[in-house]
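Section handout 9: paired folding examples.
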Amino acid sequence: MLETIKYLIGWPGPSGFGSKSTAEQVTEARGELRSITAIITGGTSGIGAETARVLASRGARVILPARSMKNAEETRDRIVTECPEAEIIVMKLDLSSLNSVANFVTRFHSLGFPLNLLINNAGKFAEKHAISEDGVEMTFATNYLGHFLLTKLLMKTMVETAEKTGIQGRIVNVTSAIHKWFTDDVISYLALISHNKSHFDATRAYSLSKLANVLHTTELATRLKQMDANVTVNCLHPGVVRTRLTRERDGFLTDLVFFLASKLLKTLPQASTLLTATKPPVPNWDPTQLKLQGYGPFPNSSFLRVQKLPLTNLITLNFELNFLGQRKRK
């Protein structure tokens, strides 16, 4: 209870920052980041756009993949207007499509850039049931499956970059405390909502996708440790902030809830993910901890449940063998 109160009022944690610290404050001590190349999904609005702005203003090369090139170009132009020397490259990417993810990675590799930082920030809360072109429920396809494949295909470049430069590579998966809300069998429910919309519930689907992010982070952290790679992966809950993610739930009730809770919400600058992305060397994700921006880790109450679920291997292997294997055979 005390830790929660400290978090809500922005009390500084072990890092020296609190939940009210902004991205500008977090990165100020790091100075210039001109040697860093970063990919930020969901970087055209909300938390992702603020993350992109601050990284670019510190000198990092920022890759902005987006489904809408128009939105990406507008975001780039806004940042360049503020920071004329910013290097921002926009590229096409639809995370709900495995083919689009593979094409994006091919184009990125063709540029010959290193890769130090991958921030998997993009998120979708689909109010209406939809299926991706790969036959997967759309929220799960976008929030988890696309990011899973993106990370897998970029991993070799990240490991090689860290070896050549000596700079620790970072993978940051933006998840949500809502992942604790999903208590059913992951694979069974995913199969159910991928074939029958009558069982679809938007909130359950979203929490499922966020739990998958946590499980993926846990499994990937284990593999990176086994590889002895100078790359770490962490997931975080950025706090509660009103972004475009809630645009499908706009209405009087939603507006009222956000108004009443406004004093407890984070602003976009406060919700940025840059503490985990840019602070001095960080260890790999520990599922006994939940990273909250600025305050540092504290016990994650969902750890015991996650620990009992043999799903980290199951999810990764299931999609790697079934979905990706099928695409390779086509």
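Moving on to protein 2 of 2.
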Amino acid sequence: MATRQSLFPAPRQSLHPSAHARQSYAPNALRQSLQVPSSDFLSSLEDCVASTEACVARLDATNKAFEPGIKDLPRIKRIFDHNVWFLVLPEPTVTKRRHEYASSLRPQIDSLVERAETLVSSESSQLLHARARLQQLESALRPALPAAPRYANTFLSSEEEKVGCKLENNLEGRKDLTMAQRRKIGMLRNKRERLERERAKLLAARA
């Protein structure tokens, strides 16, 4: 009858005798390396943990400080893509440039104002001369007119014009007039028409 030892083969012998010694030594070395550190090491580790927590807190505060500027990045990117630039100048520089431009433009503006005043005075003198001329014409034409016109600022009435035209026709139709008299009548008629036109222009300018 086979014994128990004959049923199970003998363990395989190692070719390296020192391997078993190393295996038996490894647990002892691991056990020695996992020994509880001293209190000095623990206090140093606590300081390291506290420093790490302070760094993390500062990093968190920095991220929160950068967040308002970073969250607007898409809009700023669109602005820079459109090449829109803004030049901000200090107030003293703007004031200085403004005074320089005002000093350079003041002589030109003064000359334009003087020219405008000269033109206004010239127009005023021309208007006064035209009014004086109108008064002279009215005083010259007043004796030839029968009476005051029916309406103010109007020419002769239709009846007065008919009488004047009839008188001119009668004078032209007379055969006893000499050539010089006819010529004089034509000159007077032309002068009258010219004065009437000038009077109408002056009345229109005064209105």
